Structure formats: C-alpha cells, structure tokens
C-alpha cells in the first residue's frame, strides 16, 4: 500500500523545526524574531523550543543590531528571523557590520514561492543574494520537499559551520526560505540526526611555525577588535608595549595624545611593530606607523588583521606565547611608555573636578571607570565616544564592545540593548546616535529584562565633524546644515515617552551617581550628559593635548 504524502504545510513546518533542532544541537540559544506572516513556519518552530530564548522586536533593522549585541556578549551565533520584502532589506546594514566585525549571525529571511515573483504579489522582492558578498554563505533551497528531508540537517549544519568560520573569519550567513500557504502545519517526526553533535567543529589556528626576531628589541604591539584580554596580557608579559582600540582590555592608556608630539614619536620609534586583530581609531597612530618605516609583522590567531596601508610584511599563524624567550622584548622601552602613560593619567586626574562642568573626555573617563569598578560590560558608540574612550580613558578592565566593523552610528543603541539583555550593561553614545536608532527604545531590553544605563553625550549635533576640515572650509551656516546637523529635540522627553527613565547631569559626580542608581534598578535608564558646545569641545581636546605634550617634555 502506497504511503500518503504529507501536506505541503506539514512539510514546511517540519523543515523549519528540523533546522532549529540541528542548530540547537550545535549550540544555538538566542533567536531574534520580527513579526510577519510569511515567516510563520520559522517563528512557530523556534517558539516551540524551550531551549531557545526568543526575542521579539518590531523593527527589523534594530532587531539585527540587537542580535549583534547578543552575539558579542555570548560569543555564539544568533539567529534573526524576518518575513519577506523590505523586512529582509532592512537587515542589510547590520549584515555589513557583522561581516566586517566577524560576528556570527544566522540570517533567516522568509520568501514567496517562485510563482509569486514577477507578477505583482505584495511584499515580494528579489531576495536572492540580497546581501551580496557580505555573507559567508547564501542558499535559496526553494519550497521544502518531503523527498529532500534527508538533506535538511546537512543544510542547517552548513550554515552553522559557515557562520563560525570553518577555519576562516566568522560572520553572517543568509538562508532565504520560500513558503507557500497555508503557512501553519503540523510538525511531523523530524529526520534523524547522523551524529550526536555538530558535524564539524570550528578549525583552530595552528601554532606559528616560525617566529619574528625580537631578541630584546623595542616592540610595539597594536591590537584591536577581536583580541582577547589573555592575548594582551601575554604581550605585556613579553615586555611588548600594547596599544589598543576602545575594546581592548589592559592595553596602555593615552597613547594617542602621547604620540601627537613629533619629538616623542621620534624618540619612541619601535624596532618592531606587531599587529593583532583590528586597528584602533587613532589616525595619529596610523600616521606614525607609516612615518617610522619599521618592520611590521602580524599574528593571525586574534582574527583578521586590519592592514589598510599594506604595512604588514609577514603574518605568523597562531598567537605569541609568553613561554618563548625569543619573543621577549626590551623592558626599558616598555617601562618608558608606562611612565609616560601614568604621568598623563596623573595630569588629567589633577585637572578633573568631581563637581566641575562635564566635557566629552571626562564623560568617557567616567563611563570606563564605572564599568571597571563594577565589572559591568560597556558598549561604546561610534564617532567621538569610541575615540574619547580610546584616547582619554584609563585602561578598560571589563568587557568592552563596539560596532567597529564598518563603524556606523546606525543600530548602536540596539546593539547596547542586545549586550545588556538578561544582564547588566552600560552604553555610551552621542545624541545623534540615540536619535538615529530611537526605534530601539520601542522594545528596549525585551522580555528577558535586565539593567541598562545608556549615557548620552549631548553636544547638539555631530561633534566629530568639528575636528575635520569641513568645519573651517565652510561658512558656519552651511557647516551646521550639512555636517553638524543639530536637532532641537528634548532627549529626556523622547526617552520618557517610550516609558524609560531619563535624567540630565552636568558634573562628573552627578554622572557617576546617576549611573550607579540606574544599574541598581531594572530596565533602561538614560543619562544625558550635558557637555560644552562642539567648538568648545575641539578647544578642550587641543588644550589637553598641549598639556600632555608639556608633561611628556618635562
């Protein structure tokens, strides 16, 4: 007697359930879901699994950046589920960030079946290869077929392995799954797994087979996004001077203002530069690297090495080891850098009053201090916040994150909430970054809850442009209209309208008190730090730099 063929609705329900079953077995724990009709099989499948924390968010763009935050905090792939049409297109900015920052995302877009394409069906666009080369893997398997059910687990595993990188950089992957109506079906028994776990695990980098010649030389290690605190500690144990971006924990503070003096930069020229991971934001450091014309090597074990100037002459596999005496550098050089850094810290502390007027560097220093004192993760926004943390704060002591893949301000608030969901965290952004991603306030931390303090440095516009040639090349009216783009919105009123707490502070003491209070409560607390206008901010930075120059000279 011939077996009955399951209905198409039951087949695609079982297809979606099989995908999530395989991903759960591999380690998936978080799914960010946006409401929609065509994605019903995927939504029902993930909601049925108690192993998964499902985060429902209304705005697809915000949802994808929220997923980035979850992935950064957990170091695991996170799935994003959306319906068809422009909902899928809304993910593009976050996919680009995840690509450049090597954040593993499973991007799952529902689609209309082929017969509804090209005939004017609603919510239908060409979603094939929608994200181009920004994804590690794209597949469009079409409408699920029962006679292909034995391939579903292999399909899921290909996406999991590709998101993790399979020996290459991790990143986003895109599955475009077509579904036909009716969209609700019965989940049939799932195809049996072939093995009791992931089919293939991530390939670890091999230890370096050869080493650069150090032998007591003056070594400068420049590290960025993707480099673990343990790696930075190893470099320091080897007497390497470690200069890091805003996300680096334990790197040497204040290197940017130190290197702005030509005489100091000449005196501190290293014999060898070691690159690991991404690049700091400092243009001054990149200029000095070009000027020094010294040997530059890289270690690949900390993730992709950013090298826009093509300075790296050799790349070694793995990571440096503190057990290798051949890598031990000149301790006097390391101590000289350390003394300069401590002198700068002493100088800034001496001129910073707890009750004095806030400045953007002081806000950056304070959020880093509170994060470190309380051991709470910090997420730093793009533009000026990431630079002020990198240049003017002390060394980071707790996990610090930033969207340093493509460095945009879009979605940063959502990323902050993703890191904080179900836990505690601090965000530090500018006023335009908050307004750009204001839709993140709609869903906040989601059902998982948590405690988040979002510090907003409010300088009424895009402060970074005041440091660029446009500020002096254009008349004030044109500059304000085209670049500074101030918005006269009441930030407290906006935040309160979404049901979150908001307060405005103008001193360091008040900022710290407001942050500590917010972290002691559940939910989102937005602390608006009133800082001097953008022109005055430029003068403050120039004054601090001059004080550092004199201090180092003395």
Key descriptive features of the protein:
554 residues, Rossmann fold, 39% helix, alpha/beta, 21 helices, 6-stranded parallel β-sheet
Task: Give a quick precis of the structure.
By secondary structure, the protein is of the alpha/beta class. It has helices at residues 8-26, 40-47, 60-74, 86-89, 92-101, 152-164, 229-237, 255-259, 262-267, 283-292, 331-351, 360-374, 384-392, 412-420, 431-436, 440-443, 470-473, 476-484, 491-497, 508-520, 534-553, and strands spanning 30-33, 53-56, 78-82, 105-111, 138-139, 172-178, 219-223, 241-244, 272-276, 295-299, 314-316, 378-380, 400-402, 424-430, 451-458, 501-505, 523-530.
Total helix count?
21
**Measured distance between first and last alpha carbons:** 95 Å
User: What composes the largest sheet?
Assistant: 6 strands, parallel
The overall number of domains is: 3
Mean pLDDT: 92
Structural class: alpha/beta
Strand content: 15-25%
According to CATH, the homologous superfamily of the largest domain is Thiamin diphosphate (ThDP)-binding fold, Pyr/PP domains
**The top level CATH class name of the largest domain:** Alpha Beta
Number of DSSP-assigned strands: 17
Structure write-up:
- The chain is an alpha/beta fold.
- It has three domains: 171 residues, Thiamin diphosphate (ThDP)-binding fold, Pyr/PP domains (Rossmann fold, 3-Layer(aba) Sandwich); 121 residues, TPP-binding domain (Rossmann fold); 199 residues, Thiamin diphosphate (ThDP)-binding fold, Pyr/PP domains (Rossmann fold, 3-Layer(aba) Sandwich), CATH 3.40.50.
- Helix content is 39%, strand content 15%.
- The chain has 21 helices and 17 strands.
- The strands form three sheets. A six-stranded parallel beta sheet has the order 2-1-3-4-6-5, sandwiched between helices. It has a six-stranded parallel beta sheet with strand order 13-12-14-15-17-16, sandwiched between helices. A five-stranded parallel beta sheet has the order 8-7-9-10-11.
- β9, α10 and β10 form a beta-alpha-beta unit.
- α1 packs parallel to α6 and α3 packs parallel to α5.
- It starts with 7 loop residues before the first helix and ends with a helix.
